[in-house]
Amino acid sequence: MIYSLQVLRALAAYLVFLLHFSLYAGQVLPRPDLLAFCAAGVDIFFVLSGFIMFVSTHGRAERPGAFLVRRVARVVPVYWLVTVGLALMTLVGLKPVGIVEFRPEYLLQSLAFLPFSRGGYIEPLNSVGWTLNYEMFFYAVFAGLLLIRTSAHRVLAAAGLFLGLILLGLVPVPGIYWAFYTKPIVIEFAFGIGLGYAYQRLGSLPAGFPVRRVASLAVLAAALLLLGGQGGAYALGVSPELQGFYRPLVWGSAAVLIVGAMLLLERAGIVLRARWLFTQGNASYAFYLIHNVLLHTAAKIVLALVTPGILSAALIFVSAFAAAAFLGDLVFRFVEAPGSVALRRRYERWHERRIGSAALPATITT
After folding, report:
1. Rounded Cα gap, residues 316 and 303, in angstroms
2. Which of 112, 164, 103 is nearest to 133 (CA)?
3. Is 360's pLDDT higher than 60?
4. Which of these, 76, 101, 74, lies nearest to 87 by C-alpha position?
5. Nearest residue to 49 via CA among 147, 162, 153, 201
6. How many other C-beta atoms are found inside a 10 Å radius of the C-beta of residue 16?
7. Nearest to residue 158, comparing CAs of 191, 125, 183?
8. Angle CA(335)–CA(281)–CA(322) in degrees, nearest 5?
9. What is the rounded CA–CA span in Å between residue 170 and residue 183?
10. Are 44 and 258 within 8 A, CB to CB?
11. Which among 48, 253, 270, 302 has the fewest CB atoms less than 10 Å away?
């Protein structure tokens, strides 16, 4: 495990938290969309995902089926738990954030990680789950790439496949699936795979290499991309939450620079020792899935007691963040981690029995 990347997972989740917090603090911000660049936390997650998938399977004879089981065991249980919880809240009249209308097919499509249109947006019941739809697609694609044994060829195949997808997106074909899976953002997964290949090939750094300076410049360049992209959007009068090819070019490139800087520091033995952030990195998936509903809940409670303003915004931020961090850690410790281990063990036992049965001689019958 690369320590600094776990810390980065927590920071990426916090960026997304800030993005959604701005919906409740718009009145006290100079501009309601001032924190739009925080959406780049998702781009960091996508680059990290591609990197981790490549590095965790590098040099191993990983079976596509075993790979998919490991990923499903990691992602599905908690996502299903939160999604079903939101559906139950809706059915009893609590109306959690973003769910104005509920239909049974919404729940089924959400649980199946299938994109669908809801309220004018392509998102599941848990609105942040659109990224999980991409993640499951990434896993399925990468499972197929595991059939390519040579690492360099696997990287080239990933780059060609995802580049081909976004070029196909230029063809006006009707249908949600076509529009969703050909968006330029999918290339960020290939960015992560390429970064993983470069990391494996890097080896030891030469003596005297200015690690801190290079990493600092990379982070500075990433910050300039994020803020410059938003400033450019303001100047052009368009939405600062970048879309289309602009997103991977600006936010995707920034994500590569940030992840690359963390990897460079760790390769040189410079580790960001932040135990709490490391723990939060472990729980970042649960934090990500539940933070929106906790922001919504905190806002309802605070605004029922305090007049909208700086104080109410501060109370919403502190209470929602603390609740998401605490509950996210509990979900990771008592649901996500043990559930993932249990599912993987069941698969391994099933696979062993299957292999054992296949090895038995055929029974002769008369």
Report:
1. 9
2. 112
3. no
4. 101
5. 162
6. 23
7. 191
8. 75
9. 9
10. yes
11. 270
For residue 295, give both structure tokens: 């922001």
* Strand pairing category for 121-122 and 117-118: antiparallel
Cα angle for residues 286, 290, 294 (degrees, 5° grid):
145
Report which of 260, 238, 240, 256 is spatially closest to residue 248, judged by C-alpha positions.
Answer: 256
What is the spatial distance between Cα 51 and Cα 13, in angstroms, rounded to a whole number?
Answer: 17
Residue 324 tokens read as: 């998401």
Q: pLDDT tens-digit profile of 4-39? A: 899 999 999 999 999 999 999 988 999 989 999 999
Closest-CA residue to 140 (of 193, 67, 44): 67
Q: Which amino acid does the sequence have at 345?
A: R
Greatest C-alpha distance within the chain: 86
pLDDT in tens, 159-197: 999 999 999 999 999 999 999 999 999 999 999 999 999
Q: What angle do CA 279, 282, 287 make, to 5 degrees?
A: 95
Per DSSP, helices labelled H in the chain are 3-25, 40-57, 64-91, 104-111, 130-145, 151-168, 176-181, 187-202, 211-236, 246, 253-267, 275-282, 284-305, 310-331, 337-359
Distance CA 108, CA 177 (A): 16
β-partners of residue 61 are none
User: Which amino acid does the sequence have at 337?
Assistant: A
